[in-house]
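<instruction>
Derive structure tokens from the sequence
<entry> Chain with its tokenised backbone below:
===
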Amino acid sequence: MTLLGIDTSGKTASAALCSEDCILSQTSVYTKLTHSQVILPIVKDVLKNAGLELKDIDAAAVASGPGSYTGLRIGISAVKAICYALDKKCIGISTLEALAYNMLGHRGIICPVMKARADLMYTALFTGDKNSIKRLTDDEILPVSEIIQSVSKLDGNVILTGDGISELMKNDILSNSDNITFSPPYLKLQLASGICGAALAKGKEAFYSPDRLNASYLQITKAEKDLMK
């Protein structure tokens, strides 16, 4: 399977072409431009570098949340448009699960943490062995203090990843713990290859038609808040 992956859930805009055993092409840009300005040119770039055209992909995968409301909608809209036009199937992948797949090969607990708002972060727990990732908890939005308390009680090898680790590294309990490490800078942010890895692990039967693709925000949007006033 040749899979197109897109992640626009955070500051990084990322697209990749992956097979079951190889990243064919990947481009990731940490940019101040809006994702709507850069993601389709990035898709064009990864296709050109791989010597492929859009019609050559078998399916597409995209970060479906949590993350930036606007960013998620841009990525999901792009994948829907591509899959409708090509009559291809797609799949939405948890941004946190994709971050965990950046740590594939870690043996122990993987804890992605993404900044949400104020003192809140998105997080979940996964466990990894040599070749696979398994989910331990659902995606949640929690106060930083609660995440610190929870992670500090975990046994075994624990690795933290995601843009939230810069805040957690300031905590003496976590930074001085013998069983807790932090992912390297080049793997801590969202990568489309992580989206592809998580999607490919689910198998072809997990993919579906683009009309079923939706975002999972974990917290209500501004528009929903305004309606509640």
